[in-house]
Amino acid sequence: MIKHYSVLLKESVDALNCKPDGIYVDGTLGRGGHSLEIAMRLQTGQLYAFDLDEQALTESQLRLAEVADRVTLIRANFAQMQDELNLRGVYGVDGVVMDLGVSSPQFDDAQRGFSYRYEAQLDMRMDQSQPLSAWNLVNELDEKELSALLWKYGEESYSRSIARQIVKARAVSPINTTFELVDVIKKALPAKVLNKKGHPAKQTFQALRIAVNRELDSLETGLQAAMSLLNPNGRIAVITFHSLEDRIVKEAFRKVSSVEKIDPRIPLLPSQIAQPKFRLISRKPILPSGEELAENNRSHSAKLRVLERIGD
């Protein structure tokens, strides 16, 4: 079992204000770090934990054995949480946590093909039962589609030249592995980029992973589902790792925690003025402590945002 470090663990779970008899959701089970911390704070309450990755569910079941009576594991995307919970007779929850992106074990398992640091078949599927993989995107999309994907999901400045080089390379033979793709990317980039700090394939691999797993679509749907389910005084805590995710969370939270401004010259009674149903717990995101950053460098891009449904 590969060790997993849960980012912003205390901050995110503390933000939920867990009640011993509450109903909670971990939308991204991973290796169970956040789920274990929540379940340890429950007595008669229940936690519903979601993940598409069969390996994550298996390993987490072992980790959560001591709190198994308080945890229900569900193999599904968190975007489906409302339907899945309704099927189980749950129509309201007291808190939701989402730790987005790929977990450390997924990155560190070379066979999964998520990382540009390990030689592996191009894959990147969180749900390994789905047919679409990174191999399909790299070898089957046309140049224009590839370029648009790399720009949209990776914000890759050299998306056009990388797409052009991919199409040129696969015309000779398919691009089958992570290292083959890295070599193609390097050939498409100028020396000034290759000499910069950071891996030249980072943004391309991010774009492919997001597209394969439809991460941003799932995030938007999942946030709406979580807000619909939330009981009064319940909270949503979301940890993001790149600007695309954070932008979606920030905008969704801003939208529901504010109301359209009304011309003050319009005569209205206080009861006629719309009030927001949610409030931001902090205007700025919560960031990892210096101690956490020293212990786990992968925390450096993490941001935690928290939203609360206003009580009746």
Report on the structure:
The protein has 312 residues and is α/β, with parallel strands linked by helices. It folds into 2 domains: 9-99 and 215-309, Vaccinia Virus protein VP39 (Rossmann fold), CATH 3.40.50; 124-213, Putative methyltransferase TM0872, insert domain (DNA polymerase, domain 1). The chain is 41% helix and 14% strand. The protein contains 14 helices and 7 strands. It has a 7-stranded mixed sheet with strand order 3-2-1-4-5-7-6, with helices on both faces. Helix 1 (9-15) crosses helix 2 and helix 12 runs parallel beside helix 13. It is globular and about 65 Å long. The chain starts with 8 loop residues before the first helix and ends with a strand. The mean pLDDT is 91. It catalyses: cytidine(1402) in 16S rRNA + S-adenosyl-L-methionine = N(4)-methylcytidine(1402) in 16S rRNA + S-adenosyl-L-homocysteine + H(+). S-adenosyl-L-methionine binds at residues 32-34, 51, 78, 99, 106.
Overview in brief:
This protein is an alpha/beta fold. The chain contains 14 helices and seven strands. Helix 3 (54-63) links the parallel strand 2 and strand 3.
Keywords:
2 domains; globular; DNA polymerase, domain 1; Rossmann fold; 41% helix; 312 residues; 14 helices; alpha/beta; 7-stranded mixed sheet
